[in-house]
Predict the 3D structure of the following.
Amino acid sequence: MPHPRVSSLHVYPVKACKGIDVEAAWFEHTGLAYDRNWMIVKEEKGKLVTQRQVAKLALIATSIPQDVLRQSSQSPPKGAVLTLEAPGMDKLQIPLGTPGPLKEVSCWEFQGTAYDQGDEAAAWLSEYLQGRHRLVRYAGGASQAQEVLDSSRRPADARWVTDQEVAFADGYPALIVSEGLLEQLNKRLAKPLPMNRFRPNIVVTDCAAAAEDGWIEYGIGKDVIVESVKPCDRCTVTCTDQDTAEVGKEPLVTLSTFRTSAALGWDMSKSAVFFGWNIVPKAQGAVHVNDDILIIKRREKNVAVPSKKGKSPPATAKPQVKVKSQQDMIKEGLWAALQGASVAVAVAGILMSLMYYLIKSTAPTAEIVGKPT
């Protein structure tokens, strides 16, 4: 039986806008080179705008030269540009090598800084979207070794993966989907849907439907190794026609009949539906259409996906809070007493501990752990 192989590759330079079909791409630490490196935000507060709020973002076409997409985004060639086109608008071109001033932005849980891409881009977007918007570029690093401001780095959800940076994708560096899973869905639909509804980066063929559910670690081509860390729960963007911006109810209604955690035997959100897997790179390099997929490690059949429950909290801009029990407080009081610099401090510490011990209330106390990122 042949190995699964890559049937198509897709890069989405601007979050929520049209993607670029490519024959080859560079897979770096934050995902495919230039993927979701730009984001459209509200001018006043820097909050992201997506197709969830503005469906016509689907009609903004993006382009970057194919040869540029085969290289790391950290060293764009001189003269290379990102081009945006939209109905009724002139072309907009943004040089890839111009960082711009830092602007405060938010992308879901992330609150940090990104490079503002200038007034010309802002005016273009504001006219098309009929509101004050700006274009920003990710200011973190595709290379782990690059020195950037900590406030510019966006961590992936630490409940599923640690030490992983991601640009402006929803949560993880890349998304992989099998053609067979789409075929499985389309057999259940009155009108079949194209793969672009799901905005994947890597589409694979020559494998069973939803074969990716069983992959943990695998190679793509000669150099790249990835790990599947979390099944992708799908949102209402999948209901937006990427060619017309019309919004319907499918595929979420049909996916709820066979791609829920209950149907799949996974310990996940009961209300979510899943299509494709979020992946992170373990070894970086070039990926190509027709590259073989070599499975290194598989999931055991019917083994549930690990629950988020009990895993470490994500690193976000807001401090995380944990609950402290009375026993913890008693121990801390006694320890403070033993470590006290004077008898008075020791006595105070012991008395405080005894008082807590006598309190019958079980109300928890919040302690801030971890600094904002």
